[in-house]
Design goal:
Number of helices: 27
Helix content: over 70%
Strand content: under 5%
Shape: flat
Largest sheet: none
Number of domains: 4
């Protein structure tokens, strides 16, 4: 009996030694474990959050299934995502390593900032452009927006927030998110687009309200071949204006915002009759028109007015035009310019009296 126990003990001991001895070998033969995912940094989350905000359809699908971000078929169906990952290798690496973590942490990073609309960002950007000191201070410390003493010292900001309670709420509840959104708006709004290009585009969109509505919901459609094929007027417009086509396709979000901003800033109390008369005057005074095109503020320059008595007399005879033109020279001139674009046959009307005289002479 004792011998059996001893042998059994020896067998158990031998077995234990074999297991312990073989374990390192077995572990050595196993494949190496996947390295831990790289940390998700704020820069990539900021970039990806902007992408998700601009592509709500992609955002909704990734919310349901984050692993789709690495699915080749899904990327092929959403080339904008494919382009984003290609242009942001850091984000692509983090998404590849742990898609669920990358998508969820980005969404958490966005926080309540998703409630900030482009219109709010545009209005705030304009306010900050007009108040550079406030802009600089808030970018250094966004929490100042909720500082009563700071607001009391900056009545313009306090009044702006009082006039825009929706902006006030978002800005005060999520100062960092709001400041990031406004900063992105300003950065993306920096395009090489002229007022004439914007005037043409604004006119086209006014004449095609369905296209305008669809592009405002999803500006990336401007680079969608199927969408363009279904909207031949838009395709023809882009073909006829390759400079506009280039900027619009390269920066769809920024271009759409710039056009929307142009439309808002073009809101003056000027009638068509006033624009027609001003347009005819400028057609008859091309040198004056050329100088004002370069610098619309000349309309409020006493020396310039003294050197152009015809312009001075025109404004004297039309005080309502004089008021709008002097108060808002940039806007007024751009509105007149847009009128000129929208009425290509205006020169014939302007020359009609001369034509009648020639006809009488005959």
């Amino acid at each position: 009996m004792l011998i059996r126990i001893t042998r059994t003990s020896q067998s158990l001991t031998l077995a234990l030694l074999l297991v312990v001895g073989l374990t390192p070998m077995a572990m050595a033969q196993q494949p190496t474990t996947t390295p831990s995912a790289p940390p998700v940094n704020n820069g990539e989350m900021d970039n990806f959050s902007q992408f998700l905000l601009n592509h709500p359809n992609v955002a909704n699908q990734l919310k349901q299934n984050p692993s789709l971000i690495n699915d080749p078929n899904f990327q092929a169906q959403h080339p904008q995502l494919q382009t984003f990952l290609k242009n942001h290798p850091g984000a692509a690496q983090q998404a590849q390593a742990d898609p669920t973590r990358f998508v969820n942490e980005t969404r958490a990073f966005m926080g309540q900032g998703k409630e900030i609309t482009r219109g709010q960002a545009a209005r705030t950007d304009q306010f900050l452009d007009n108040h550079p000191d406030i802009a600089q201070q808030l970018r250094k410390d966004p929490s100042l927006i909720d500082n009563k003493q700071y607001l009391a010292q900056h009545p313009d900001l306090q009044q702006y927030l009082n006039n825009h309670p929706d902006i006030r709420k978002e800005w005060q509840e999520h100062p960092d998110a709001f400041e990031r959104r406004e900063a992105r708006y300003e950065k993306n709004n920096d395009l090489d687009v002229t007022h004439r290009q914007l005037a043409r585009t604004d006119e086209f969109l006014d004449n095609h309200p369905e296209v305008a509505q669809q592009l405002r919901k999803d500006p990336s459609l401007i680079d969608n071949k199927q969408y363009l094929a279904n909207h031949p007027d838009l395709q023809e417009y882009l073909n006829n204006h390759p400079d506009i086509r280039k900027d619009w396709k390269q920066h769809p979000e920024a271009f759409e915002r710039r056009e929307a901003q142009f439309e808002r800033s073009n809101d003056l109390d000027v009638s068509r009759g006033q624009l027609a008369r001003t347009d005819q005057f400028l057609d008859n005074h091309p040198d004056t028109a050329k100088q004002l095109r370069k610098d619309p503020s000349l309309i409020d320059n006493k020396q310039f007015m003294a050197n152009h008595p015809d312009l001075q007399e025109y404004l004297k005879n039309h005080p309502e035009i004089k008021q709008e033109w002097k108060n808002h020279p940039e806007k007024f001139y751009h509105r007149e310019e847009q009128y000129s674009i929208n009425h290509p046959n205006k020169t014939q009307k302007a020359k009609s009296p001369q034509s009648k005289n020639q006809h009488k002479a005959k």
